[in-house]
Write a structure and sequence with these properties.
Largest sheet: 8 strands, antiparallel
Radius of gyration: 16 Å
Distance between the termini: 25 Å
Oligomer: single chain
């Protein structure tokens, strides 16, 4: 695959092509308290609806566009931030032109600037490599929440900068915590830097059977 000329060109591509190039990228968030910068070490790719050329049963957009996932349908270069498990926020970088859903979940990274501020936001972290070790931890350490849904991420309050050279230690595997279709080895769309201590632990999705219904609803990522 030909390396992109810049990040905006890269983000025209599907998330499965974008994700490896985001490993090592710097994500900067400017806040009144100060900046926090994360070097991404783990990302997950998510594609589109069931009726699209790239259906992804693990994606929020699989059943089509809604008020919740509208940001995923473009334009590229914005944040899609969603609330999960009634307590956490996760952030994705939207890819592909308007009308086509695709995005990269920022799963984990290393705090390279604003360490003290990140520690104050994540006081339960025992070690610095745990500060952004997981998508909810990453957003917490960076001060990203639901108010940032739809925010441009290529300059201003949030800026994503590609590394000078793509990582040469890219590993791939199934995505974390997705049950049913989309969470199998047929979807090796989790990408991480091999051997980096900030990468989160892999946990397969668990299908839960509702007590009063035979319907099983798969867990979904971005």
């Amino acid at each position: 695959m030909v390396p992109p000329a810049d990040i905006l060109e890269l983000l025209q591509r599907p998330a499965t092509e974008v994700a490896p190039y985001l490993l090592g990228a710097l994500v900067r968030h400017e806040t009144p308290e100060g900046p926090v910068v994360v070097r991404l070490t783990e990302v997950e790719a998510y594609l589109g609806p069931a009726n699209s050329p790239d259906p992804d049963p693990g994606a929020h957009s699989y059943r089509g566009q809604t008020n919740r996932n509208a940001v995923m349908f473009g334009p590229p270069g914005h944040l899609y931030v969603y609330f999960t498990y009634g307590m956490h926020y996760c952030a994705n970088l939207v890819c592909r032109p308007v009308g086509t859903s695709s995005g990269c979940l920022m799963r984990a990274g290393e705090i390279v600037e604003g360490l003290e501020l990140a520690r104050s936001r994540r006081p339960t972290a025992k070690r610095d490599y745990e500060l952004a070790q997981g998508p909810a931890r990453l957003t917490k350490a960076m001060g990203i929440s639901g108010v940032h849904n739809g925010l441009p991420a290529l300059g201003g309050e949030v800026t994503v900068t590609l590394p000078a050279e793509p990582s040469t230690r890219v590993m791939t595997g199934p995505r974390v915590g997705i049950s049913g279709p989309g969470g199998t080895v047929d979807y090796p769309w989790r990408f991480w830097i091999d051997g980096d201590p900030t990468v989160s632990r892999f946990k397969p999705g668990v299908v839960r059977t509702p007590r009063r219904s035979a319907l099983i609803v798969p867990n979904r990522g971005a």
